[in-house]
Amino acid sequence: MDSSTTDSLIPAGIMPCNWKPVIVPTSADKIATGDFDPKEHLQYEPPSKVHTMKDLSLPENTGISPIAVSEPFHLFTTGAIHRMRAEVLSKDVWDNCQYSSNLAQCQLRGFAAKYAPFVYDTWKNPETLSIISKIAGVELVTEMDFEIAHINISVKSDKQREEEVQAFVEKKAFDEDEGIAGCPWEDDKPIVDWHTDAYPFVCVTMLSDCTNMIGGETALKTGNGEIVKVRGPQMGCAVILQGRYIEHQALRALGTTERITMVTSFRPRCPNLPDDTVLTTVRPISNLSELYSQYSEYRLEILEERVRTQLRSFRENKRDGKKLNVQAMKNFIKKQEEFLAHMNKEMVEEELVIMGSIDDSHLLTSKADDVAKTKRKRAQ
Known about the structure:
Blueprint: H1 27-30, H2 38-41, E1 50-52, E2 67-70, E3 73-74, H3 78-88, H4 91-96, E4 98-99, E5 107-108, H5 112-115, H6 117-124, H7 126-136, E6 140-142, E7 150-155, H8 158-178, E8 192-195, E9 201-206, E10 214-215, E11 218-221, E12 227-230, E13 237-241, E14 248-250, E15 253-254, E16 258-268, H9 288-319, H10 326-346, H11 367-379
Helix pairs in contact: 9-10
């Protein structure tokens, strides 16, 4: 993609030679070493508000928690962010872990376990998991190693940044003069287009300096079809979202040359809670051998724990002389059959997966409905 194109993104496989990170670590940060230490690297401040599924007019029995999304909250120290950026922007990660799709043009995936030990330990740490779980309203664990710290990246030149900000200022002034209410800038080129996540919960952490950023929010579709926006986090801050059950979009940011977010996915720790994980949006941007292997392992672990629990209950009842509840056993078997059938459906044969191409089956509403609604809105 030509570097002069508005809102240019880093094409897959190419690291722009003229792009430099906004945050330049000090010499002390460059030589920082050691493992992740929650006492040193966590700087948690609770979110000002947590929105429920009910607040978004979504069914309260949807998902694994009544919590929908949090307002941004401070999670990491500046030193921790510098350490993360150093690993994320390393040559090994750029050379081996870049992906691109029709939803997002530059993503880094599946790197943490091999190339980013600090990032990996951060999200595996019990104190980090405790914070995420408390906000989400349910005990969570990382989905699988491949999904620790998925990175979305958008970059632009200084010239593009200045032109966008100037256009924003001029349109805002015009709208104010004309008495036009509402947002003076509507984003038709999001960083990540409308989608639902593959996994129940995500934690989105900002790795860029947002001091002069305009926009950069996450747009959410409510149950009644309206769009609400959650303001983007500042550097070192994060947002928790039950993204498997809420359609959302990452909006562009003006006023900065980069926007780098880290998205870590989570699932319920309890094996008896639903695991509605789907691989629709991640198959085309993954090493399928790694993805399917890790997906199979954790799903079989869930099944193993469910069977062990059922067997333990069965033996206890038998020892106590209780008659087998045949219907309850049949219900259990049926549930596990559905669990395995879902798992089988998600593991599409590799030769049938088109890399970089994500269809619309993950959406809760059709694009045709969105287009019609937009036209009606503009006509009013």
